[in-house]
Specification:
By secondary structure, this protein is mainly alpha-helical. Among the domains are: about 5-55, no CATH class; about 125-160. It has helices at about 5-20, 25-35, 35-55, 65-110, 120-155.
């Protein structure tokens, strides 16, 4: 069994149904309207008003009058905005400057210095550096060997070289 609608939900459903042409009321709303005089009066009154408004032709608004209204309202508002925009931009820039200044001051005040490394940490870092440099040196030596082999030894391996005979 479905729960009954209260008047507020029924009225919302009635208005929603009238906003969408051809939608109609759902079964729960129809059941509520059948048993509630106030909601039935609202539904009947809105249906009558909608039917009366459907027969009214839309009013034609002359283009010249529309342009005059547009100039007095929209264009006038846009013309007044540059001064407001300049003031707003200035206020925003000042606020941004103050925010950055406050952030910078906070960073300076709350910054903590890292402690200096101790002798054991320095010795370990030096040992690690020596290892890295040894590995880099080996890699460079091997690279040099490969380059010499590729650039010199292999090409000359195919060139027949005869020893010179001297008289």
């Amino acid at each position: 069994m479905t729960a009954r609608l209260d008047c507020a939900a029924a009225r919302a459903s009635i208005h929603a149904a009238l906003d969408v042409p051809g939608m109609g009321l759902d079964a729960r709303t129809r059941a509520h309207v059948a048993g509630c005089a106030a909601c039935r009066e609202l539904a009947d009154g809105l249906a009558e008003l909608t039917a009366a408004l459907a027969g009214v032709a839309p009013l034609a608004f002359p283009e010249d009058d529309l342009a005059a209204v547009w100039r007095r309202t929209i264009d006038a508002a846009h013309a007044a905005r540059p001064a407001v925009r300049r003031r707003s931009a200035l206020v925003l820039r000042a606020a941004a400057f103050l925010a950055f200044a406050a952030l910078g001051a906070w960073a300076v005040v709350t910054a903590t210095r890292e402690p200096e490394p101790g002798p054991a940490e320095l010795a370990r870092a030096a040992s690690d550096l020596e290892t890295v440099l040894r590995l880099a040196g080996r890699a460079l030596d091997r690279g040099r060997e490969v380059a010499v082999d590729d650039a010199v030894r292999r090409p000359f391996a195919y060139i027949p070289i005869r020893p010179e005979r001297r008289p």
